[in-house]
Amino acid sequence: MAEVDFKQANESYAASFGDNGKLSIPPSKRLVVVTCMDARLNPEEFLGLNLGEAHIIRNAGGLAKESLRSIIISQRLLGTKDVLVIHHSDCGMLTFSDEQLRSKIINAHPGNTDVSEAVNDLQFGPFPDLDESVKDDIAFLKNHPLVLKEGNITGWVYEVETGNVREVV
Prior knowledge:
By secondary structure, the protein is an alpha/beta fold. Helix content is 37%, strand content 17%. A 5-stranded mixed beta sheet has the order 2-1-3-4-5.
């Protein structure tokens, strides 16, 4: 297991939990943030968000397509309006292609046809250009018929080197 004592950390957290259990299910800022799972990103902190203010959806690369189901639920059932898509500098998704990752997985399981078939059905979503990936995600969301257009849908890049965000689209 990871080198973190989760039980002790949770006991400390729960001891100062206060009235957080009374927060409403819909986020108070009516905001959805889609960002990367990268451990260097703390979106609540770099966006100045508190518990209960936004839905934070994370996946490899912060890809909108992978977040679509959650965005639809957040908007349609929980009243969120604005969507921020935040990718980041020095992202691992810039470092490989689908074929490279498929080959790596297949080579780790030689002769295993179940693994080969399963990995060949996956699209991992790497991208060669950071800003273009943000623009592509925003275009995808703005053009998707199930994504509400009542709020703003904007795209940003978080700079892991400085902690700053910059708007792309």
